[in-house]
Amino acid sequence: MKMDSKQSKKENIREKLLEQQEDAQLVRKIVVRIMIAMIVIIGITGIGGYLYVNSALKPLDPNDKKKRTVEIPIGSSVSSISNLLEEEGIIKNARVFKYYIKFRNESGFQAGKYSLSPSMTHQEIVNSIKTGKMMKEAALKITIPEGKQLVQIAEIVAEKTDQNPKEVFKKLNDKKFIQSMQDKFPALLTDDIYDKDIKYPLEGYLFPSTYDFEEESPSLETVISKMLKQTEDMLTKYEEQMIEQDYSVHTLLTMASLVEEEATEKVDRAKIASVFYNRLDKGMPLQTDPTVLYAKGEHKERVFYKDLEIDSPYNTYKVKGLPPGPIANAGEMSIKAVLEPEKTKYLYFLATPEGEVLYSKTLDEHNAKKAEHITNQ
Length: 377
Known about the structure:
Layout: H1 2-56, E1 68-72, H2 78-87, H3 94-103, E2 112-116, H4 122-131, E3 140-143, H5 150-161, H6 165-172, H7 175-184, E4 210-213, H8 220-236, H9 239-244, H10 249-262, H11 269-281, H12 289-296, H13 332-339, E5 348-351, E6 357-360, H14 363-373
Antiparallel strand pairs: 1-2, 3-4, 5-6
Helix pairs in contact: 2-3, 5-6, 10-13, 11-13
C-alpha cells in the first residue's frame, strides 16, 4: 500500500511538471508571437512613416509652376511660416517642413511678400524666404483675355508698351522673330505653324493671362516669350492626355480655339466640344461661324448667308475637318473641354441672344429652335 502511495505521488508530481512545461512552452510561444507582431507593426509603421516623410519632402506639384503671392508677417515663427505655406498650397505638410528647417539648422527668415510655386523644392523655398528674395511690384501689367486673335493681342501689347500696333503685328509675323521664338520653345512651336494655309504662325499660341513685368518698357521678345512660356507650362499638365489621345499641340490649340470662340460665360464647353466631335465622326462639316469671320478678317455680331461663300481653308462651312490652325487664343477651360468632352449625341447648337446655348440632335429640331429664338434670319 505504501509503495502504491509513493508511486502515485511521483506520478502526480510528474504530471504537474509536464503541465508546467507545457504552460511554459505555451507562454513562450505567445511571447514570441507577440514580439513578432510588434516587430512587424513597428516595421510597417517605420516604412509607412519613411514613405510619408519622403513624399512630404518632395514638391507639392512638380508640374504646377504658377507663382502665388505669399506674405510672411513680421515676427513669424518657423511653425507659423510652415502652416502658412501649407495653407497657401505651396508645401504638402507643415510639420515635415518645420522639422526640415530645424534639421538643417536654417534661420534668418525675412518678412515680406514672396512669389512661390508648388513646384519648388523645400530648399528653394527656404533659400527664397531666407535671402529675402521678395516679389517686386510689377512696373507693367499686360492682360490678354481669352478668345483674342493675334491682331488684337498686338494692339493690346502695343498700347501697353507705347508702340505702333501695326509694327508690333508685323514683328509678330516676321520670319526671323518667329524662328527665334521657335528656337526657345521647340516643343511648343513645331513646324505645324508653317503650314502653307496658316494665316499667322503664332495665332492661338499666346496664352490668355495677366503678365507682370519688372520694367516699364519690356522688349517684344520678353513679352512674347513670357506668353509662350505660359502656354507651354499650362500644356505640360495635360501632356499624358495629349499622348493618350494622339493630340499634337497644334491640333489641340486649333480645336480649343473653336470651342473658345463659340463659348459664352454660361455655356458648357465640354458639351460644345462633344458637338464638334460628333460632327467630325459623321464626316459633317463643323459649320462654325467664327471660322468664317476669321477667314474674312472681320469682327461682327452676325454672319449672313453671303458670308458663308468665302473661299478659304478656314471656312468650315465649305471645308470638312478642322481649319489649318487656331483662330484665336483659348483658355484652359476650353483646352480641358477638348481633352475631356461630354458624351452626347448632339450635332447642332444654337446661341440665343440671351447667351443661352440650345442643343439639338437633328436639323429639323435645330431649325425649329432657330426660328423660335433667332429673328430676321
